[in-house]
User: What shape does this take?
Amino acid sequence: ARAAWDRAADEYAAGGDARGQALALVRSGETSVALGEQVRAIETLQQALTLSQEIAEPALESAAAGALGNAYAQAGLYDEASTLLNASAETAKAIDAPALAASAYNNLGNVMAYQGRPTEAESAYRQAIDAASRAQDNALALRASANLARVQLENNNPEAAAKTLDQATPRLQALPDSHEKIYTTISIGRLYQRLAADGGDRQAAWARQAQTLLNQAAKEAEQVGDLRAQSFALGYQGELYERAGRYDEALGLTQRAIFAAQRANLDDPLYRWQWQSGRILKASGEQDLAVLSFEQSVYTLESIRQDVNTGLRARQTSFRDSVGPIYFGLADLLLLRSAASTDADAGTEDLLRARDTVELLKSAELEDYFQDDCVASLQAKTSGIDRLD
Assistant: This one.
């Protein structure tokens, strides 16, 4: 898609059509954001914004500023993002373009949420919902509603979050079948799942609603061949059953989620479900299989650790808090197995593997603390603890 947008931009430029060129650059930049290539996205969208300002096209300028602001937000540059997204929203309001305003406010809410400013995030999301409703964009209104509920949950206001979700969910069925609908269904189902996990009088009802939505998303994802969505929908269902202590069903769903992630070569969901499989197996008393699943999760995570670190920094979340339990979970299992082992050599091997696992986590924490992936190259030059005096 990006290659096509880039060709379009070149051809518009050759034909002297600055408006067409700017629009194609906006689309190319948005595609780079989707691909996770933020530096390229920012360069492309800055060019689009400059062009749109030169030709005095307010709608195009609003779209370019909004897309550039979102790219800055994805890169963790929140001050720059806030400035651009506010400008995009104000321009869109001035020319009565509610769809553009809704997109800018939704992304601005994300920035406020990332910065730990829940009140401002809620205000931005509400403005996004209002603007999207005026634009008759149900998909965007639902995305903003899900984001609003997420902030309300994180701000310890489950009743408000439940009210937001209960108002939004009936609109899901009005959406045409699409990948976007599937992901929105997963998002809302996941939020009901979090509500259920927090307890409360409606815990059972929220769990049932989560199960219904996630099951619907998994079926629709299978029909359209979206393996990523299918993996997340199945994995989250597995977590629901894990919390309920229904381990056989939880393991079956989790294994299906792992298979979908492997088929699509997706390491991000894969390590989550391998970890989940390990927890379920541990709870079921299958210690050796649990160790294997935890090891697979750590191995998968190590292969994408720098990407995970970058994403966590953008969300201002530490590596230790987010995925540290995987490493500690594996080390704990190895220590327990070593203590119970009647084979001295096997017990010692488990102790060494437990130590090495914790050292892996410490290396990741160094990278996270210094926010510098060059720590990894330094680690390659250091001696192991077993070779120290």
Notes: The mean pLDDT is 90. The first helix runs from residue 2 to 14. The CA atoms of residues 225 and 267 lie 18 Å apart.
